[in-house]
Backbone:
């Protein structure tokens, strides 16, 4: 089968690799140059792409994404580790408050990967460049689709600014700014159906390098996530002694635009003791990378039970985007492309759209809905703090559920309560990691009577630890430092 992949994104290149190895002729089309750089550091220096600002933001790969790569693309997984990607074991994730650190069966599944996104992309680009059945054409912009008439139309390829490319199947991996609905209109097809929910936050990320022989305040592969009143701070150890630091305020908090300035960024980060200790032992490697206009989006190519067209599919951010805070996007993309590679050849092209839509319904949509609910609640709490207004009756339960202020009245516990109690119980800790890693549905964990009972016991005895939150005056002074 001849397959045209629109977009040299991570999902596009992984799909091309898997499909090429199954004997298909694959052509990847990207308007940018996706040839591999000389080494990981050169890749990092040229990683920023205006059309894909997420590339330079913080990333981790949780179990739902890590395990399929290890199974289906072991050479890519080994290449990641050889390139410096950190395999962060469950024991390394455990907080110092957890006394019982003895191993349990299945702990190997719960490791996650820490990296600069540019490093894993570099390995994937090198892999694709060596695939005999995959051709990558850089500097080519896709302008539309070709199709035969029908109800629905049958896609037969793409048009580009370098001429038409015929294909038995077109795979849209062009990202969150995909033009797929514009392309579909051009062949007389119905548009896709998109569900959207706001994330309501902005991201500001900067990368640092640990100083040689410095006395570190913790292990180099550190992972810090601190949700506070006005913003969230995330800090991840990455490959090659680099550390990414990210500030995540509500998008409507205009004061935080000041952190585009490195001096203000540093001053705000230093208001958090955990970050200040690390800033003392590392030097900046990059400027501050901003990213905004974020939404949770889920695209369906089957509408009212009928595909909008046959011969075209979407993967990666073209299909689904979620708030990067929970690091779900790459895992979703890997689920999609691995499932797709198995389905192509097994099913007629005309059936593939429904086959992939079923995957979306069962494996993607529940987590998408979970993320949208979490974001709505967290955003409500941030907005109340920003505006200095009390919660209304309708939003109070939702926002408190996400912020961890109360226990669910229906016998469940909230995610933040689980996270806090998990620091004192090894089984709760594993349950929390399985939930974040998307190996166990949230409802199964948060409504488990044993989990609810144990969380109540622990929080009743230790209480909720205070957040290292700067005062409004401290934060205002830091934001004015630029």
Residues:
């Amino acid at each position: 089968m001849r397959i045209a992949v629109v977009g040299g994104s991570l999902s596009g290149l992984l799909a091309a690799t898997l499909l090429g190895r199954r004997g298909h002729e694959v052509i990847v089309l990207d308007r940018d140059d996706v040839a591999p750089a000389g080494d990981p550091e050169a890749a990092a220096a040229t990683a920023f792409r205006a059309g894909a600002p997420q590339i330079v933001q913080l990333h981790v790969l949780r179990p739902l994404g890590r395990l399929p790569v290890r199974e289906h693309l072991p050479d890519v997984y080994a290449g990641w580790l050889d390139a410096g990607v950190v395999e962060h074991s469950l024991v390394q994730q455990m907080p110092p408050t957890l006394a019982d650190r003895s191993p349990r069966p299945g702990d190997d599944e719960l490791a996650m990967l820490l990296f600069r996104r540019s490093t894993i992309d570099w390995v994937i680009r090198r892999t694709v460049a060596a695939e005999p059945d995959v051709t990558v054409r850089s500097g080519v912009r896709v302008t539309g689709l070709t199709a035969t008439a029908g109800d629905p139309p049958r896609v037969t390829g793409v048009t580009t600014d370098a001429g038409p490319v015929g294909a038995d199947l077109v795979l849209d991996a062009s990202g969150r700014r995909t033009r797929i609905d514009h392309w579909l209109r051009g062949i007389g097809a119905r548009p896709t159906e998109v569900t959207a929910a706001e994330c309501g936050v902005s991201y500001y990320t900067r990368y640092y390098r640990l100083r040689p022989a410095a006395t570190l305040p913790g292990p180099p592969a550190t992972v810090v996530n601190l949700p506070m009143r006005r913003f969230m701070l995330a800090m991840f150890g990455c490959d090659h002694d680099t550390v990414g630091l990210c500030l995540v305020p509500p998008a409507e908090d205009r004061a935080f635009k000041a952190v585009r300035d490195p001096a203000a960024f540093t001053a705000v980060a230093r208001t958090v003791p955990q970050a200040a200790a690390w800033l003392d032992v590392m030097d900046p490697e990059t400027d501050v990378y901003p990213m905004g206009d974020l939404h949770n989006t889920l695209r369906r190519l089957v509408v009212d039970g009928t595909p909008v067209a046959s011969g075209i599919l979407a993967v990666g951010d073209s299909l689904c985007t979620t708030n990067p805070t929970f690091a779900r996007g790459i895992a979703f993309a890997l689920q999609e492309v691995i499932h797709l590679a198995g389905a192509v050849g097994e099913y007629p092209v005309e059936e593939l759209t429904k086959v992939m839509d079923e995957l979306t319904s069962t494996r993607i949509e529940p987590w998408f809905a979970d993320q949208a609910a979490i974001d709505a609640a967290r955003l409500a709490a941030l907005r109340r703090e920003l505006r200095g207004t009390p919660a209304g009756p309708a939003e109070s339960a939702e926002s408190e559920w996400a912020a961890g202020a109360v226990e669910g009245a229906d016998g469940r516990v909230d995610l933040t309560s689980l996270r806090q109690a998990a620091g004192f119980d090894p089984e709760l800790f594993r349950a929390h990691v399985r939930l974040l890693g998307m190996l166990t549905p949230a409802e199964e964990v948060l409504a488990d009577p044993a989990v609810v009972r144990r969380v109540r016991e622990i929080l009743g005895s230790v209480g909720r630890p205070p957040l290292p939150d700067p005062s409004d005056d401290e934060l205002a002074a830091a934001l004015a430092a630029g």
